[in-house]
Specification:
Two copies of one chain form a homodimer. By secondary structure, chain A is of the alpha/beta class. The first copy, chain A, has twelve helices and 13 strands. Chain A has helices spanning 20-31, 49-62, 87-90, 112-122, 136-144, 174-177, 180-187, 198-201, 208-215, 220-240, 248-257, 313-321, and strands at 10-16, 35-42, 70-72, 127-131, 152-158, 193-196, 205-207, 244-246, 262-264, 270-272, 283-285, 302-304, 307-308. The first copy, chain A, has a seven-stranded parallel beta sheet with strand order 3-2-1-4-5-6-12, with helices on both faces. A two-stranded antiparallel sheet of chain A has the order 7-8. Chain A has a two-stranded antiparallel sheet with strand order 9-13. In chain A, helix 5 (136-144) packs across helix 7.
């Protein structure tokens, strides 16, 4: 056991479907001084789990971090089949069509769920989980080892839409939509979980100036991210009316490590709609009775982030490019 | 046929589950110069349909409007049984325990759905429908006469929660919750329907000064309303932190007759969750893509009110008490 002390970097396992904004989240975690990225698991979502691992390995190699193990996770959701991803958003290769040399090394032989369980023992009582894709791997890990939550400090998950519109259906967000059953198992596992929904991620953006700052960096990973954003900005143009993008995944990473703090994050009952009805994939967050200020529901283990202390954009770019971080 | 001309008052059929805020809506419509209330149908919700008719008749008699027919509508929702109402909100008799003498006259022999269909012929091409309770009667009328929408100018319905929390479940509002199947039939009937959800009704309130103005009125109906609000304010105290109440039903009435105007009311696809899942009773409004301003969806027949030009409170009290209306 490797109990965490306050001055040591936080060991973090990242579960991702890399993905352009997943790449931003990965780069952010690599650039954060108080973070020790101890493993990456992949899952099908923005792209398939194998391609997500290929992308993650390539990005880690660009960053010189060939020490971080990458494990391929679930290709299919718990029920049904992977739908093929969203090349119109993240490009055919998941990273906006940007060509990065494949890494020398291969993914681990173990699955993402196995890697997570192994790391939970190595870093028992210290490991934090950040998820920025569908929750299939976490649900599988919970099924394989129900004691997993006892060794985890916290889970931070990008997912859901509490009071904001969804992005796949009127009420469903993509990470939850892609595996509602896994999301329900993960959200009801009793561990302290912070949900970072579209309500806040859609309000955090990068724009052309940010993209240029990444392109102008001497850091090859930063430059690759700037290239990927070209594709991503195209997708968001009709939504925002200006070339820019939402910062879904990096916001979850930043909240997980304290780079951005939640200022409104009530602990409330949540339930994923796993029916076949029109609400399938919605994370139903019970936000009744919050009018007079935050009211945590006794026994609720999921906090839903509804407001943060600052915008992520400048902090994110500053961190990734190694520039002085703006306060 | 009695085609409406612009300078004649608008003929209106009110469908209600009277109800304290239903009583406010009824009084408001009676006090509006450009409104001809031509019929009232009742339905079980806040109280049962028979009691709602008794209350409506008594209130109409207080107002000297014994000419307005009142018909008892559906006691039970399309599926299942009436659950007994909410005496903790609206009192055991539906009007906050206030004792008003029963009217001399009785309800019509016809049902509310039959009354609505009859009025749709009498006022074909002119009749407007305002609903402030569950939509059972409208669904029944549509089933009895599918040509009904061709004779109706507009339907305005208090119901649903678009981006705001629900008030029965995390996502379901009471009028829809009480009969989701009827709501789905009504919202998909193709007539121009304006949905007035909790998003706006919770932001419109009466407070103690308003209640006192009603109690100080020389109008007996206004005074009775002031008495009812005593009970209603108690219920809302934990929500607002001050004795006051939401104006759910009167806001729908005011929007229907132009006393309050919607400033944001996109026409969007809507679907009621009629599943047995956790989202049952939710009106799923597709509000994606509205960030850059209102975008009406081609073919959508339901408008969802998300913002209005002014608060209803002072206008409502002024109208009911006969005081000069504030601009």
């Amino acid at each position: 056991m490797n109990r965490h002390t306050d001055d040591a970097p936080h060991p973090i396992y990242l579960d991702c479907d890399t993905g352009i904004d997943d790449s931003l989240a990965l780069a952010y975690l690599l650039s954060s001084a108080d973070v020790d990225l101890v493993g990456v698991g992949t899952v099908s979502g923005n792209t398939d789990a194998a391609q997500a691992a290929r992308n993650s390995l390539a990005l880690l190699e660009l960053a010189g971090r060939t020490d971080v193990p990458v494990a391929i996770g679930a290709h299919d959701p718990l029920n049904g089949r992977y739908d093929g991803g969203v090349p119109e958003i993240h490009g055919v290769n998941g990273i906006g069509g940007v060509q990065i040399a494949d890494a020398e090394r291969r993914p681990e032989r173990e699955s993402a769920a196995e890697l997570l369980i192994r790391l939970s023992h190595t870093h028992a009582g210290a490991l934090r989980i950040v998820t920025v894709g569908p929750l299939t791997n976490l649900a599988l890990a919970l099924a394989m080892d129900p004691t997993l939550p006892t060794r985890i400090v916290a889970v931070t998950s990008m997912g859901g839409a509490a009071l904001a519109p969804g992005n796949v259906t009127a009420v469903a967000e993509a990470n939850i939509w892609n595996d509602p059953e896994a999301a329900q198992l993960t959200l009801s596992a009793g561990w302290p979980l912070t949900l970072v929904p579209l309500d806040v991620t859609m309000e955090n953006r990068l724009d052309e100036a940010d993209r240029q700052a990444l392109l102008d960096s001497r850091d090859p990973l930063a430059r690759a991210l700037g290239q990927m954003l070209d594709h991503y900005f195209d997708f968001y143009l009709p939504e925002y009316g200006v070339r820019s993008c939402a910062l879904h995944d990096p916001l979850a990473a930043a909240i997980a490590v304290g780079g951005v703090r939640a200022t409104r994050n009530p602990a409330v009952p949540v339930e994923v709609d796993t029916s076949a009805g029109p609400g399938r994939g919605q994370v139903i967050c019970d936000l009744r009775g919050q009018r007079l200020g935050q009211r945590d529901s006794p026994g609720a283990t999921v906090r839903v982030v509804l407001a943060t202390d600052r915008s992520l954009g400048a902090h994110l770019v500053g961190s990734i490019t190694g520039a002085t971080q703006l306060a």
